[in-house]
Amino acid sequence: MLHALGDPTRRAMVERLSHGPMSVSKLAEPLPITLTAVGQHLKVLKRGGLVKTQKSGRVRSCSLNPAGFSLLQLWIAEQSSVLEKKLDRLGEVLEEEDDPA
Questions:
Q1: Nearest to 17 by CA among 62, 66, 59
Q2: CATH no. for residue 61?
Q3: The domain containing residue 74 runs over which residues?
Q4: Is the pLDDT confidence value at 99 over 80?
Q5: Over 70: is that where the pLDDT of 1 sits?
Q6: What CA–CA distance (Å, rounded) separates 46 from 88?
Q7: Where is pLDDT greater, at 14 or 99?
Q8: Which of 23, 25, 92, 95 is 20 to 30 A off residue 81, Cα-Cα?
Q9: Residue 28: how many other CB atoms lie within 10 Å
Q10: What is the DSSP string of 39-76?
Q11: Number of domains making up the chain
Q12: Which pTM was predicted?
């Protein structure tokens, strides 16, 4: 997921899709890359679980996958908890050093 969001073009695509589903060609319109490159970026986003696509006739539509973002949010919360515990422990150590015993 983080690799998928590490690229500015993919982040721009996610931002556009946050406004709602759209066809791949519509998604590609403002991007200064080929339609083939858009497809490659979509593959990375799909592998990361952040985007899903659906084909209806000749049109491929894509949308955000909320489940993928839920996993990312959970991971961030877990990492934040670990970091908070480390910072709390650091605070305790610093208080012990400041406390003249």
A1: 62
A2: 1.10.10.10
A3: 2-98
A4: no
A5: yes
A6: 38
A7: 14
A8: 95
A9: 21
A10: HHHHHHHHHTTSEEEEEETTEEEEEE-HHHHHHHHHHH
A11: 1
A12: 0.75
